[in-house]
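User: Is it possible to get a 3D structure for a protein together with its bound compound? The compound here is adenosine-5'-triphosphate. I've pasted both below.
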Amino acid sequence: MRKIGIMGGTFDPIHTGHLMLAEWAADKAGLEQVWLIPTGLSYLKANRDILPGEERLHMAKLAVEGNERLRCMDLEIRREGFTYSYETMELLGQRYPQDRFYFIVGADCLAGLENWKCPERLLASCTLLAAVRGEHSMDELEQRRRRLLERFGGDIRLMSFPQLELSSTEIRERLRRGESVRYMVPEKVLAYIQERGFYHEKKECEAFHEEVEEGHP
Ligand code: ATP
Ligand code: MG
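Assistant: Yes, that's possible. Here is the predicted structure of the complex:
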């Protein structure tokens, strides 16, 4: 039996916080591998433009190159429509019946877990490993953990994690403003972002578009 960690995320783009969390969880829970699974269409982020799944997966692959413990999977980006974590975990359970799965999340996710689709099915299919960062107290989260267990059952574990003021949102905004994100994302990911011009101000593009449209009504 292998112990496998699963990290879902938009990864738009993947950053050092995600990678550190995967490594941290692997050590804490004794995981053989952690699989990073970029989300397909997430109903939680449906109203924001996100890069196509293939691009987010490609950046994740670049990020884990050379690290045998981290893998990427295209399971969710290949699925049509919205994807839900419980479906992914149930699918993995069916596909890899010998393995035990640990779903790794930031503890901020615990607050919203009641509103996820079928939390009881998610918790039945894996252990939930929640990384507690500085902004929440362990006590508060411990209470929340108990309440969730009473309501849905399962296995939820809290692990402390250093607080990094780092998010994909912050990275996209910095890039938009022309600021450095060096060391916030792995070098290869940054090179790819720059090569493709991702997350830049769209002004020039739009202006170009308008000209073309005016020229060819
Ligand atoms: P966005 O800003 O677009 O929401 P994000 O940085 O929060 O992006 P996601 O892809 O939404 O990244 O998150 C994937 C997982 O990584 C979530 O479980 C989230 O809690 C966790 N995570 C994101 N940033 C950090 C961080 N700095 N430290 C620890 N966990 C993090
Ligand atoms: Mg987020």
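The chain has a mean pLDDT of 89. Residues 138-152 form the longest helix (15 residues).
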